[in-house]
Design goal:
single chain, 139 residues, alpha/beta, Rossmann fold, four-stranded parallel sheet, 4 strands, 44% helix
Length: 139
């Protein structure tokens, strides 16, 4: 029996790109972490700071925000909004006592199923190394 910490990851995924990549990865039977909870959003630009903070409050150990590559947004500039918002949100997490490394932004197109798997695996490993969020906040 393994006692290795299995983090809970919430992944906000753009409907048009990243969610399609996740679906393709599943259809192709690529092995991706089972502890990543996908949350489909119409655009990464719709992921507000409140949504991210709510995910942490609800027990997530890490939050991934994934969307279309810059210039490929279905809504023209939604991912530009996301790119501007994430550094500010990372600073806010630091003030709240949450390691900003627990939040990651990644661009994954619908044709990049292997990249989706790689990003999710790398993020799960990083959060495993950080340990449980509850432990971090308690310190």
């Amino acid at each position: 029996m393994s006692t290795e910490f299995e983090p809970r990851i919430v992944a906000f995924m753009c409907n048009w790109c990243t969610y399609a990549a996740a679906d393709s990865a599943g259809v192709a039977r690529m092995e991706s972490p089972a502890n990543v909870l996908p949350v489909r959003v119409m655009c990464s630009g719709r992921v507000s700071p409140e949504m991210v903070l709510r995910a942490f409050r609800a027990g997530a150990d890490g939050v991934l925000v994934m969307g279309c590559h810059i210039g490929d947004c279905h809504y023209s500039s939604g991912n530009h909004r996301t790119a501007k918002r994430m550094p500010i949100l990372r600073n806010l997490l630091g003030y709240a006592g949450i390691n900003p490394e627990r939040l990651r932004l990644a661009w994954v197109s619908s044709a990049e199923a292997p990249r989706f798997v790689k990003v999710t695996q790398e993020f799960v490993e990083k959060v495993q190394a950080l340990g449980p969020l509850a432990q971090e906040v308690a310190e």
